[in-house]
Amino acid sequence: MPHTAPRHLAEGPRVGIRHFTYEDGAEFTARVRESKDLHHPWLFPPDSAQAYAAYASRLIEDPTKAGFLVCEKDGGGIAGFVNINNIVGGGFLSGALGYGAFAHAAGRGLMREGLGLVVRYAFGPLRLHRLEINVQPGNAASIALARACGFHLEGFSPKMLYIDGAWRDHQRWAITVETATSG
Q1: For residues 183 and 146, what is the distance between their CA atoms, to the nearest angstrom?
Q2: How is the beta sheet containing 66-72 ordered, strand by strand?
Q3: Residue 29 to residue 47: CA distance in whole angstroms
Q4: Separation CA 22–CA 44 (nearest Å)
Q5: Residues 6+ away with beta carbon under 8 Å from 170
């Protein structure tokens, strides 16, 4: 399934991260369809060519977003994705993360490595100061990933996001450049 992909922006022992391309559509949507049970009811990434094109376009063209594919170095297949949304400059220098693993990669530590690379990239080349993850309280896997990558629970936001037909409560997890480098 993998095609010849652009060079990684950052690499760890098992994965590299790179930006989305339009050419990733076939592999990405196939992985989404294979991962429906893993993602439901938390996440609904694009599962068709048309939906992927619109999704990728926002990540590629909108300066307030940055999308990263987490790719296995052995073979280059897409293991998951991490997006930084709502990037704000000025005195805020912040962004909100969203992410998902694909079923074939879940539970293997690849997303932990990939999210760590995105955090370092955000605090390095992107020059952000703070990243936030908003997670539904019942999403134990996502909370465990946030915690494992150094994010700290900051609070609770009732009925924060409209997902799967209802307004959902979320926990707010955050990390700053200082907390990322201190420990």
Answers
A1: 14
A2: 10-11, 15-19, 66-72, 78-88, 94-101, 130-135, 166-176, 152-163
A3: 4
A4: 19
A5: 134, 135, 136, 137, 156, 157, 160, 161
pLDDT digits (tens, 9 = 90+) for 48-68: 999 999 999 999 999 999 999
- What predicted TM-score, i.e. pTM, was given to this entire model? 0.93
Helix orientation angle between 49-61 and 25-34, rounded to the nearest 10 degrees = 120
SS3 per-residue string spanning the chain: CCCCCCCCCEECCCEEEEECCHHHHHHHHHHHHHCHHHHCCCCCCCCCHHHHHHHHHHHHHCCCCEEEEEEECCCCCEEEEEEEEEEECCCCCEEEEEEEECHHHCCCCHHHHHHHHHHHHHHCCCCCCEEEEEECCCCHHHHHHHHHCCCEEEEEEEEEEEECCEEEEEEEEEEEHHHHHHC
| Spatial contact of 38 and 105, defined as CB atoms under 8 Å apart | no
Q: At residue 6, does pLDDT exceed 80?
A: no
92 Cβ contact list (under 8 Å, min separation 6):
129, 130
Q: Which residue has 């912040």 as its token pair?
A: 94
Query: What is the residue type of 67?
Result: G
Angle between helix axes 140-148 and 110-123 (nearest 10 degrees) is 50
Compute the distance between CA of residue 90 and CA of residue 41 in angstroms, rounded to an integer. Answer: 35
